[in-house]
Amino acid sequence: MKKIIFSMSLLVMLFSCQSEDANNANTDASSKVAHRGCASHDVHEEQLRQNPELALKMNEIEELTNNAITQGRLVNGKIEIPVVVNVLYRTAAENISLAQIQSQIAVLNQDFNATNSDYNSVPALFSGVKANVGITFVLDAVNRKSTTKTSWGTADAMKKANRGGIAPTSPTTKLNFWVCTIGGGILGYAQFPGGASATDGVVCDSRYVGNTGTAAAPFNKGRTATHEVGHWMNLRHIWGDANCGSDLVADTPTHNTANYGILAFPHYSTCPGTPVEMTMNYMDYTDDAGMYMFTQGQKSRMAALFVSGGPRFSFGQP
User: Fold this and answer.
1) Entry pTM
2) Mean pLDDT of 86-111
3) Which of the residue ranges 5-19, 37-51, 72-86 would you say has the lowest mean pLDDT?
4) What pLDDT sits at residue 55?
């Protein structure tokens, strides 16, 4: 288990500048996605490039998070998060049904409350750290808008009415969840805590929402949203977006890099100590059927957001 190390120098190293080409919406939206692609880290790098002051805010959030965990000042009550789903569609298939949206909310509730049917598949090696996060989600509203765009990219255009998208609804008290065709092999992305309210929330490609309707294998169990909401709650990729990097969580093993598909257990890292990698963690890149757990450390990191002074404190209020 790795030691949490966080400093301004690490923050700068993790978030180097991103090419503008990554935000190009003119991508082949119809290409088949073979591996999970999450743009949260890349989008965050771009936000840091555009707003250097965000690095200071992220460092403050990290300090608050570590203090809340160390001092035990975590939320003990039940956090219930209202979700506003914003659907942007050009085709009938992109205009996903209410039933498909509801299936996604159900998956989030299962995965964040350890009632998912595969939770008991967690290997004995990790049974001592597997966690019931204890956060629930309630569908608050569904907004729909027809568009002529074939893909939206990752430059947050879908969140802006003046660019053809849908502006967020009450982003300081509601989780906004945009559904659209992203393109470029990206399944989804999220904004980490600390960013602008006007772009706060989660984006998922319409083909990877929920577990029914147009949901396409091997990402048809709703885990793209689970992964992205994890980012929205300040979780990093389990490999720390660097070879043998840190995800800032003490009870997750060090990973070489992202894992894909469904790996046989145990899968050993070649990082120092050759730990068994936690490939079934929601913050890896495995297929939907291959991910089914958060850890106690990840739970504590998420809970710290909702304490007094935390960046998502307003979500925990009546």
Assistant:
1) 0.85
2) 98
3) 5-19
4) 76
Say which amino acid occupies 251: D
| 153 backbone φψ class: left, alpha, beta (φ>0; ψ -120 to 50) | left
Strand order in the sheet with 175-180: 135-146, 79-89, 175-180, 202-205, 188-190
- Quote the crossing angle between the two packed helices 223-232 and 98-112, to the nearest 10°: 60
Cα separation, 58 vs 206, in Å, equals 30
228 is catalytic: yes
Task: Give the closest residue to 204 by CA, choosing from 238, 231, 244, 172.
Answer: 231
Integer Cα distance of 166 and 178 in angstroms: 8
Which is the catalytic residue, given 46, 62, 94, 228?
228
Instruction: State residue 79 phi and psi, 5-degree precision.
Output: -95, 125
CB atoms within 10 A of CB 161: 9
Token pair for 210: 């929920």
